[in-house]
Every structure is written in C-alpha cells, then in structure tokens.
User: Fold these one by one.
Assistant:
Number 1:
Amino acid sequence: MRSYRTLLRTPEYTPFLLSFAAHAAAQTIGGLALATLVYRATGSPLLSAVSMFGPQLAQLLGAAFLLSGADRLPPRTVLTVIPLAFAAGTAVLALPGLPLWAVLVVLLLQGLVASLGGGVRGGLMNEILPKDGYVLGRSVFNMLWGIVQITGFAAGGALLTLLTPHSCLLLTTAFYLLSALVTRLGLTARPPRSAGRPSLSATWRTNALLWSSRPRRLVYLGLWVPNGLVVGGDSLYVSYAPAAAGTMYACGALGMFAGDLVVGRLVPPALRPRLATPLRLLLAAPYLFFVLRPSVALSVLAAAVASVGFAASLVLQERLMALTPDDLAGQALGLHTTGMVALQGVGALLAGTLAQLTSPATAMSLMAAASTAVTVALFVLERRPGPDEVTAGLREPRRAHERS
C-alpha cells in the first residue's frame, strides 16, 4: 500500500486517527500548561520537567504488571476507558491550590493507566490495516502526532498568554472526553487478540519471551535509549527559554512530521533499514551545540532539524514487527511504547537533575552526547551477530511470516 487515499479509505482507520488526535491534543496542551504551572510555582527545572514527563516514569510499573492486557482485553473498551481516566485526573490537576504531592500522585496514576494505551492502539492498528499498509499507516499516525504537537504546543503557548494554566487544564479535560466519545462511536467492538486473562505472570512471561531474542533486544534498546535521552533534554525547553518553549516544541514537532513523511512515504522500502543509525545520530547532533547558548532563532531551528531523526522509530518499529509473531504484536508494541516513554521520563529526571547542578543548556548538550554514544555502541553491537540470531531469535519471525 503506497497511497494515502487507499489508506484513509480503510474502514475504521480515520476514526482511529481522530480519537488519537483528540487524545494527543490533550497531552500537548495539558503537558505544557502543567509544566508552566509547576515552574511558576517552584522555579525548579527538575520539577517542571518531571511534571511534564512524570507519567511516563510510571509506565515502567505498568509494563511490569499490566501489559498483558494489550492483547487480552477488548481494544475499544480499553481505548475508551483510558481517556476517561485521564479526563478525571486532569480535572483534579486543574483544582486551584493543589499541593505538589497530590500533583505527583495524579501523574503516577495517569502513567499506570497510560501503560496499556500504546500496546492496545498499536495492536489495533495492526488489525485494521493490511500487512503491506502498516509502515504507511504508522507514518501517517506519527505525522498526525507531529501535526497535533505543532498546533497543540503553539496553541498552548498562545492560550497561556490569555488564560491561566488551570483554565488550560480544563480545556484539556474536554479533549480527553472527546477522544473517548470518538472511540466509542467510531470503532467496532473486537474480541481480544489472545485468550486468557491479563495477569502479572502473563505479562512477565511474554515480556521475557520478547526480550529473549538478541535482535529484538537491540531493536528495543534502539527505540528506547537514544530517543529517551534526547527527549529528556527536550523537557528543559520551559526552563531553557520560557518565552519560546511553545515555539520550540511546535517546531520540533514540525521536524518530526517532515521526517515521518519522507521516511514513510518517499524512501524506498529497501533503503529504510539503512537509515536507523543516521537518523538516531541526527536526533542528537544539533543539541551538542546548546552548551554555547545559541540564539532563540538558532535554538528553534536546531530543534526542528534534530526532530527529523525521530523517524528512526518508524524504521525500527518495522523491524520489530518483522521479528515478532502476530499474536504478540500488541504486547510487543506496548513494550516498545511503554519502554520508550518510561525512558523519556527517566531522561527528563536525569536532565532536570543536571540542569539543577549546571544549567539547562549544558544539561541538554550532555544528554545529546550520551544519546550519540549509545547510538554508536548499538551500531557496533548490531554488526556483531549473536548466537540466538541463528537459532531461536529468528525462528519466531519465520513462523509469523508463514502465518501471514
């Protein structure tokens, strides 16, 4: 499938995108509003970064305890309940005078709930689209995320000049409710992809199986670590340039959109696998120079150029699906999403700590240097095949291919 027209005519794909768009709009506007609220109250880069990316840390717990539900629960039900839970939590965050400990508790609970979302959403998209449409469909999904971030952060920055952060959080609540409504009305009820009840043992058993293959381990690390370190640096935009943070986030989303457009639509399939490492290096390189404190205009340009490198995730997701049996696709994608956002939360915590000890600009450059080092190390490891690539690690993808 190489046509956007054919893709958008696929039954249920459009409402699937619209429900995600409303959820993503809520995340961008609400995240910026909450980070601004916390920074104004505390003046702390660390607390500001944690308030924006803190729920992602909690997804580590979700990956350990809840992730088996990605394939063992009805997808429409899960994707309806998640935004309703976020709406309730965001309404609590909008209460005036809410103490910081209560904010952190709400963020923890939201992160636990969100840990199911990536896997359920990814597995459902894998069901909605034909096999040859996954990469194009995923690129459109990523581009939509980029568009929503561009408009959401730009609108969020503008709204914060006109409204209080508390009012912006109430608007966020409305977007979450809209997402739940579109999901309930636009998607059909489907049974779970796998039999059995979600449980801790099932989650751990399948996670262990997914992690047991060296090729998959390297893909997961490539999806999680370089990305998480750079996004951790991105979490310092508010403290790095308070007046321009919304613009930096919006232009970063524009770069991400451009990268997904080019890689998903224009790059030939045979060439895509070769781009994973160059794109991950591009993701970090522009931030290496932030220690020099470039002007706001150059900082915005650097954010846009670097974010083109997020398209590496599209290449690596395609590789992950080729290495995973169909009946584990939901949990495999859920583990990817949960690990990615959890590492982004860890990155935000690390970047915020470095910013407290040095400065936001220095911390961003240090995070970029660490991301570059990890990408180079993973490239070297990928060039040295392990024994399981010749045995068990490659048997499962062949069986998955035969079933398809």
Note: The chain has 19 helices and no strands.
Number 2:
Amino acid sequence: MKKNHFITFIIFIILVTLTATIIIYPDVAFKGSTRGLEMWWGIVFPSLLPFFILSELLICFGIVQFIGVFLEPVMRPLFRVPGVGAFVWAMGMASGFPSGAKLSAKLYKDGELTKLEAERLNSFTNSSNPLFIFVAVSVGFFHNVNIGIVLAASHYLSNALVGLLMRFYGKNQPNYSRREKTPSNRIKHAFTVLHEKRMKEKRPIGKILGDAIASSIQTLLMIGGFIIVFSVLNMLLIEVGFITQVGKIISFFISKSSIHQDLSTPFVSGLFEITLGSKLVSDVANSTLLQQVALTSFILGFGGFSIQAQVASIISEVKMSMKPYMIGRLLQSVIAPILAVILWKPLYVDRLASWSNHKTITVINNFTEQHFHIDSIFVIGPIITLTALYIYVLLIIYRIYIQKKKPQF
C-alpha cells in the first residue's frame, strides 16, 4: 500500500510540475507542439499510412500467411518465430516505427502468433525507415549523403543481431511455441492456407478496405499525440535546463575518454526523441564525424521514450509484455554504435577514396543535398494527411448513419 501511495505521489508531482512549466513557458510549449505536429503532419502520417493500410489488407486476404509458409524454415530456426514474422520484419524496416508493434499485436490477436512469439518478434522488428535515415538524418541534418549507408547498415544489422539474441527469450517455457508439420508440397500448402484464410473472411471488400483505413488512421492519430507530447516535453526540459544539467553530469564521466563532451546534451535529448536528438548531434561542431555517427546510431537503436510510449500503447491492447521490447532496445543501442565504428572505414572512408576518381560523384552529391533537403518532404505530406483525414471522417459518418438505420429490438 505504501508503494502505491508513493507512486501516486510521484505521478502527482510530475503532472503538477509539467502543468506549471507549460504555464510559465507557453511559447516554448507552443513551439514544441508545433514542431511535433509538423513532423507528424508532414512525414509520419503520409509515410506510415500506406504501409498500415496495405498490411491490414495483406493479413485479411491471407497473403501474409502465404508468405509465412515459405519462410517458416528460415524464421523458425533463426528467430524462433513463424514465417509470418518475416513479413512483420520487412514492413517494419520499410515503414519505420512503430509498424513492428502494430503488426505483431495484430497477428497475435488473429491467432497467427502465440504471445511469446509476438513479444519476441516485437523486440527486433521496430526500426527507423530508410527515408528518415537517408533523407532526414544524412542529408537534412548532416548534409552528408555518404554517411547514410553507415547509419542504415549499423541500424538494420543490429536489429538482426537483436533478433538472434532474443530467440533465447522464454526458452524455458515449455510447449509455448507451436510446432507445425512440414508439408510434403510447400507450394500447395501455401495456396491452401491462402484460400482458407480468404474464405474465413466474411466481410465484403468495401467493408474490409474501410476498416483498414479507419484502423490505420486511428493508430496514427494516437501516434501523433505521443509525438506532440514528447516534443513539448523535450523542448521544456531544454528550456528549464534539465537536459543541460544531466548532460554536464554525463560529460563529467566521459571527460577522461576520447568522446567529445559536447555530445552529452544531444545524448540526453536523444533519449527522449530521436529526431531532435539526431539534429542536436549533427550541430556539434567540435566532435569528429565518426563520434557523431556512432551516437546517432545509438539514438536510432534506442528509439527514444516517445517511440517506446507508442509501442507500449499499441501492445497493451492485447496484453503483450513490454519487457522483451525494452531488452531489445537496450541491446540494439549497444550493438548499433559498435557496428557503426566497425563499418566506418569500409563503408565511408574507403568508399570516399574510391569515388574521388569519379568526376560524377560530386555532381550527384551536390544535387542530392540541394534538392532532397528535409523541408521538401513537407510539401506533399500535408496534402496526403488532409485527404486521409477527410476520408476517415466520411467513414465515421457513414458508420453512424448505417448504425442508426439498423432496426432496434
């Protein structure tokens, strides 16, 4: 009882302090809110919506199960998850945070995964998408398109290594993973599974598409709320000096190492939100580029409290544990910067040396940096977001209308 009272008191203090800080610094809160809204409005929503809708449709029509039959011999021995886990992993890499959590929870809810398999899969299928790594971080923040390959390679390879390590999660729990019989004809079995899944779906195509759109937009609205909240929180913590003070403490501990002390504040900021953290890392002028890339790899691997809160909200709906996901984030935040350091010479230094003899590479780099700045992403993004929200409102109105027309008994 005393422990519960203490937790209640801590929550009370945090909320009151946060409210008072917003009242004292309304301009900072507004700036953080606007920044978070622009990120969700221009990038997150339009980039994730097509993947969310497509994944819902692929699951409903049995395409995911079809793919799972072929990839079962790969995914099961390597990661101790069914073959459908390959689809979640691929979609997670292509669309970014928190697609892996949404799809893992969806497949667990549909009975395609056991709870342990879903938790194990969720631990390594949430990653940053290539658009953010190559365009936003590499070009938009660092103005250096060549470091994108180092960041991407260290990020996705560390994800795979986390998956190999997390296969041992829950190994002592007996009879928890399903054991499927090896079919004599895998192609025939795959089409049989595809047909059975399609026949079980009784909803018409229009209803399936409408439900997929509504579910995807609802999830993205929740994600947008988390992005705005943590953006405001991050800006307020910077304004009151909390992040700076914590950065000084970290700076004291790394003062005797070769790591530059100016990276301590971006490190703390990146723990809360990866976009601002990565931007602050790129602004450190006195550090070496290798140290900046390694720290950015850490931030991308850890994910930030904002994304972790999004994942927690999604998987809590199906009672999945957050523990394996957090273990995966800690593992990747250690492995990713190590891989970045290892891959730095072959993927960056050596490539620059080999490209120096090609006259076209300078033109390509200049073109990329001039025409693919992060601000250009915001041009088309809001149009897609507005259109999707308009369709979502129409679907809600249609559902209410249909519900009222149903006879009441």
Note: The two ends are 47 Å apart (CA to CA).
Number 3:
Amino acid sequence: MGGGIYLIQDEDRLVEMIEQAYDNEDRLQELLEKYPTLIAGDQIDRATPRQWLLISREMPLPAEDEVNGQWSFEHLFLDQNAIPTLVAVKHTQDTRIRREIVGQMLDYAANVLIYWPIESIITQFESNCRDVGRDPEQVFEEFLGTDAHEDRFWDKVKTNLQAGKLRLVFVSDEISPELRRVVEFLNEQLDPTEVLALEIKQYVSQDGLKTLVPRIIGQTAEAQQKKASATRERRRWDEASFFHEFETRQGYEEAQMAREIQQWVRRHEPAVEVVWGTGELYGGFLAKLKQKGRKSIALFTVDISGDFVISSSSYATQPPFDSPENWQELRSRFSSIGLSLPADSSETRLPTFPLSTLQDESALQQVLETFEWIVQKIQSES
C-alpha cells in the first residue's frame, strides 16, 4: 500500500487514513454512479467546473455483427455543455487496462457516432430515472435549472456526437505510468475529443472512516493549448460549407428548407443580405435588413443545429413594431402557424424553433410571407 493522509477530528485527534485497494471493480463503478462529483469536474475545467448527468450504467451499443449481439461500456454521462462523457472503470489488477481497454474505448467512441441515435440516449436516460424512482423532468431541472430548454439541450448532444466532440475517461484506483503516457498522447492528438484518466484512491482509517481522493491525469500544457487554440479559431461558414454540413447533420429535407429560406433572402437583395456566422455548434446564416443611414436590422437566423431563430427583439423597439397594435398583429401572424412570440415586445428572449416545425410547405411559405410583410412595414417607416 502507499502512504496515508491525515484527518483532524474531535479535539485535535489525529486520524491516520491508510491507502486501501477497492474490494472489486464493481465497487468503484457503484461509487461513480452514486457520486458523479467524483469525476472531478473542477479539475477538468477550473474556470467552469463540469457537472454530470448520468444517462446510464452499462450503456449498450448494438454490434455491427448481429451474431455477437450487443456490447457496452460502464457509464455514460453528459456535462452541462451537452458533451457526452464515456467512462471506463478498471481495477489496477486488470492487466488489460493499457492495451485492450484503450482500444475498446476508442472503438466505443468511433461506433457511437454510427449506432447511437439521440432517441436512444433519451430513452436510456428516462429508463435510468425510472429504475431509481425519479421523474426524468425533475432530474433534468435539478441538473440545468428550471429555465433550461430541454429540447435544445438534446439537440446539442446530437450535434456534439456528430462533430466527434466527446470526452473519454479511464478510471482506476491507480493509473500506471504507461497508461498515463498513452492518455497524454491521445489527448494531445485528438481534437475535439478529450481523453483523460481519473485516479480515485481510497483511504481507510482503523475505525472505518473512508476518504476518496480523485485526481485527473492527461491535461498536459500542450493538449490544453491546442484545444484552446481550436476554440479561438472558430469556423467561418460560407454557402457551400454550410449546406454540405447542414445536410449531413439534419438530412436532405431540412437542408432543402434552409436553401428555400436563403433563396428568399436572395430575391430581396440588396435590401436584405445574408451574413455568414462562425462556430461549430451555432454558426449559420443571418438575414439582415439594410436601412439608409441607420443600423441594419436582424430578421432571423438559420443555424447549423437545425434551428430557426426569429430576431424579434431587434425590431420590436423600432417603428412600426414599437406600437402595441403592430406588435400584436405580428404575434398573431406567427401564432396562426404555431410560432409564439413574447407577449411583451421588450423581452429579449429570441423565439427559436426547429426547422422541422415548418416541414409543411404551407407553414414555411407563411413564415416567409410574414417576413415579407415585416420588411414592407419597416421600409414604409423609413
């Protein structure tokens, strides 16, 4: 056994805690499931400590070869940024931990993008909640707060999976020097996937007290610098790259809808222009109405995650929509196709809807006709 740590208790009584191995691998798995904070989110991201939502223990993945059935890994968590975190737990005495386990984890990461539809993740989350007698909605609210938009969160999980934005965590009571070098190498080379090891040592006193000490391994200075640089160098979209990626992520039908919306903007040039955005998750194109001698007005955005965002706050405070009558007429027009604007025009929240909401051709045409009316109303006041 290794050295100990010391606790001061009851009138300065010094209690020595001696390092002790776990009885078995299952015990360490149970502790992670019961106490997700052991994954040391404050060490992974000191500026914004990671929080964890457990999706499932023993998360199944369908095998490509049906003869072999299904295979699984120990835990799947999501953090508050919807980044899937795959956790493999192995005991120190498991001789496979450096070769077979690393290869298995990389297999998981590669195949999860093919075999893991977001519907399956949601189903596993809800099933896991029911197994422990919890309401899924309550668990989700406790995780992200009552104001969190659950559908957008799951959409972001899907986008992260498609972009390969994952976190792979190897957990053991002791991380060997060999595994540490492998983890550091992978973390420096893989982007945007993050690869880490987590060592959770157990210390026990003579009278039965237990202390768990987690330590994150693998965040070398080079890996952190590379990933920080990748974050700074945000992707700049253009027409070709956006529609190619959009169709890959959202499918042909929604891509056609996005193209039809862009064509509407083109028909209104030069008064209305397309501005291409940046960002792997939320980049896309913004439609802006130009005004002589005044700042352009944002009309709406179509982003890479498949959302249609109505920029109502940008024109709600300007003529003619600064009048209650015109604002209510605008709300009524959107309401007739099932899209809801804030009752209070001063509210800064931007109404956001999946493009799939507008799959009915008549609904999309009504939206475009509404923006035609918005443009005419604003121009009439110029």
Note: The first helix runs from residue 25 to 34.
Number 4:
Amino acid sequence: MIRLSRVLAATLCLIAPLTHAAGLKFIQVPGGADGPAIDAAMWSPCLEAPAEMRIGALSVPAVPDCPIAGEKLPLIIISHGYGGWYLGHHDTAEALADAGFIVVAINHPHANYADMSRANGLGVLVERPVDIKRTVDFMLTTSPDAAKIDPQRVGFYGFSQGGYTGLVIAGANPDFNKLPPRCADPKATGCPPSTQAHPLRPKLPLQSLTHDPRIKAMVVADPLSVVFQTIDSVKNVRIPLQLWGAELGGGGGASPEDVAMLAHILTNKPDFRVAPKAMHLSFLTPCPEIRPSSDACIDAPGFDRTAFHRDFNDAIVAFFRQHLVEARSP
C-alpha cells in the first residue's frame, strides 16, 4: 500500500473515509467496429487490508476483486509509453485508488510489451486517442462498475507516448512531420524499422485526431513533445494540466528541450515540474519490481526512484484532488 503523507491522509476522508487499500481486477474493453478489444487493469478504493498479489514475476500490494468502496467516484485513465503495459505505473495507480479514485490502465492494442506488431507505424499514434475514448465510453456506460463513477470527474495520466495521447485527447493536433521517419502513410498499420520511409518522404498533412471533452484534468510525464512545437498545435488544450519533464531526458521525441518548449507554448499554463536527475524511464514504477536488469531500471547516479515516486505520486494525487474533487464539489 502506498504510504500517504499526514496531510493527504487527513484530506482523504473527504471522499473515501474508510478506504485503505487498492482493489485490483483485470477487465477488457470489448472490441467492435472502432477497434479491437482492449485489455486493462482496474484499481479501486477497498475496505480490506492489502496483501502481496503475484502477477507473473511482479508483486503488487492489492486486494483482488475487492468490492468498490464509495459512490460517484472520480475516474483516472492511464496510458503507457512505447512498449509499455498496464502495470508499468502501478504504484501511481495504487496511490490514486488509495485516495478514492477508480483507476483504469490499458494495454494499447498491437503496441504494448506483449504485442508490438504495429508499434512502429504512425497508425498507432492515430489510434491511441481512440483507445482512450473507447475506454471512457465503456467505463461510463456498459462497465459493471459504471454506477460507481461520476462522469463529470474523469481525468487522465500518461507517460511518453501516453503523454502524447493525453495531449491529443485534450485538444492538441500533432504535426507528424516532426517525427523521425516512420511510415509515409499516417494510416499505415505497421512500419518496421527496416522499411521506414526515406527521410525525404512526402510532407504529411496535419491531422485532427480524436479529442474527448469528458477528460477534465490531466497529468503527463515526459510526453512525446516534438510533434507539438507551435502554439497552434496546442491552442485547444485548455483543461488543467500538470506536466513533468525528466532533467536528463533520454526518451525519443521527449527531450528536455522539447518538453520545456511544450510548457512554454501552452496557452493555459501547466503546472510544469522538472524532476532533478531523472531520466526518461525514471517515471516507470520503481525497480527491482520489473525486470531489475533491464534498461527500464537504470537511473542516473544519485537518483532514488523510490523516494522520487513517493513525492511524484503525492503531487499527482493532490493535483487530481484539486481539479476533480474540490473544484467540482457541490
């Protein structure tokens, strides 16, 4: 269970007075004409004490299939980065669920750690915002837990390409010409590196992608920012936004300079925070829980990922409380 600060623990009672653990279950957004089925993990406030739950080689503190504690709760959707998955930010999801939020993290179809078959084409960047809209549709309508959710209190958290996804959902329109060559056709379903378009590809048209006004507040960490480098591209992003950048960078399309430029050109100025000594992948859940020998677990000397995530998660919870709970209370 995520340890909350005294102040946060005291204010927690405003929305979920008896919760002290994250319930966890696995769900699926049904497939249809607008896309394939979407696998997801869902965390929620729970009255039972958590235990260590094993998921493959991963261990997380949770109560499997715990009944949701509370009514009309805010909902947060989580979008992973390139090659990520729905448990890549589980500590943040747990912190939010402990604070009274329902949290749903998805695996973007054909572009997650288990299935990268379309991850290198531009098509996935077009489809990612659609995945989020479909997930919100499901959670607010046909989900068995729809009655537990307040449809006026929906937020979003995204990392890397997930941050890009959130910005599009919030109203941004990317310029794919700013990307390194992927596919000449923005609707392509796949473009392996060996068949990438030549750098002198034809200029791609600007696309107006899927936006969703039901998202009322958003946190994005080290987003793919190179496609949003003009005021016009982000002029319609008007919701409250907390933007995090890694001081040392290291993620494609999310250099510290690109993220800082994004913060500068947003008309509705974000709560912009730079994480000292953090690298791009430092925003992933603390290691050694996930593949301790992998690149995802390598941080810069002097950076304590576990300590950083305690503060990071507290800041995210406080932001969503301010904009989805306090700002919308009767």
Note: The two ends are 30 Å apart (CA to CA).
